[in-house]
Amino acid sequence: MASDRPIIRAENVSMEYARGGEVVRALGGLSLDVREGEILCIVGSSGCGKSTLLNIIAGFLKPTEGRVLLRDEPITGIDTRCGMIFQEYALFPWKTVQSNVEFGLKMKGVDKGTRRETAAKFIKLVGLEGFEKAYPAELSGGMRQRAALARSLANDPEILLMDEPFAAVDAMTRQLLQDQLVDIVAKTKKTVIFVTHSIDEALILSDRITVFSSRPGRVKAILKNDLPKPRSAAAQLSPRYLELKSQIWDSVQEEVLQQIALMERIQR
Amino acid sequence: MTTQPAKAAGGARSAPRPPWRHRYTAISAVSAICFIGLWELAAATGAIDPQFFPPPSYVWHELERLVADGSIFDFILVSTRRVLIGFVFSAGVGIPLGILLGTTKLIRWIVEPIISIIRPLPSLAWIPLSMLWLGLSEEQKYSIVFMGTIAPLVVFVTDATMRVDSIYTRAAQNLGAGRLRIMWEVILPGALPSIISALKVTLALAWTCIISAEMVGSTKGLGFLIWNGKDLSNISQVIIGMLAISLTVLALDTIIRGVEHRMLPWHRGQDKR
After folding, report:
1. Which CATH architecture has domain B61-266?
2. Residue A261 class from Cβ within 10 Å (0-12 exposed, 13-18 middle, 19+ buried)?
């Protein structure tokens, strides 16, 4: 069965880089499978290599050791099948929402009419009709991130790599964006790898949650998130939700404490 | 789905000018009139010697003469033409070269020493060589403008290119853009605001180049007008030449600002004027 095969498989991935004359080990022999069509959330303390892993999958970085397979083939460079959503939106400020969303199609050489149609479809999907001609600077943070999502989706990636995408928006907007994301992923049937600091966010969005150990990053725990969908505000009060939350927190807490101890040692 | 208030999109573009703007203009006008009045008064009371510092009325008479024989317009046009032609060459070479330098390390290492040698040279230093090579032709004037502006322009554009946030490049790569497309679709528009600022600065530089070139070897242009006025001890003519430079540069500046406004639509509403 297709859905049993991992769409992404990280095999023993290590990543080291030099910073200020010191070698930093961001990832230390990490292995992880991502299943097709799931939303996998990665939580962990800051500096645990979550973003590094996304950058390796996107092809921006090459691991020092190990490899990442996309549908059984090693990733060797930047691949448009992995669409990246940045925390800073990264919308092109000099392009309108429409042109931003059309960008990937333009690079593929798709003709103007088709581009327009596809862009309109995804702008509608993220609820930005009427803002086609607006520039990113004229949009709110939440709207910018929706435009960035539309831009990525229009390029039809198989996997969405989301690097703390909602961290820069206010709490109310974040909740709306989370609901929309779940809705959109269900409609478009994408696989999502979602990096977050927030255990609540992970519990609301995910099918599975993986906790990373602090530097060097490794998979510390993987949990199946069996909370019933849709996960409304009420779901966050259910006993199972609280049980999962404390389970993840225990796991993360150890790592955070270790990380703090490490930082203090470095400062001394 | 949420739809936030539409004024977020429209508001920034059609911000009305504040009503007190007219008052600023009025104050500026009164200030200018007072300055001219005091100047005239100083000459009339004998506080300054009109032979060495002619009052506005003398300058006005001289202006009437230069307007009557048409030479002032002729000279403005000649100098503007020289500046613009030299500058177009400079921009045509400087902008692409700067972008190339900003994006390709190897080329930067090759070209940088040459630029570093040219950059400290004032435009005056190029005049002897250019005269020997090109005589007193129009080409010699263009070459002075070119040599005087190319190095700073390249440096400005290289800086602007390198300062484009790499996140845009990564986003573009992630969406399937190759090297050339990134230069055209990301680096150039990303650097454009700074490039236009650089053009404004170097255009002012181009004027200093042409004025010095015209003072040394020309029978036309505003630089010649000033130098000739000095030779004839016609100080009014010198002052008119200087005013003509100021006003022409200001007029060109206004035109550039209009072009800038059209070329950077995403910057509208962010003007801090």
Report:
1. Orthogonal Bundle (1.10)
2. exposed
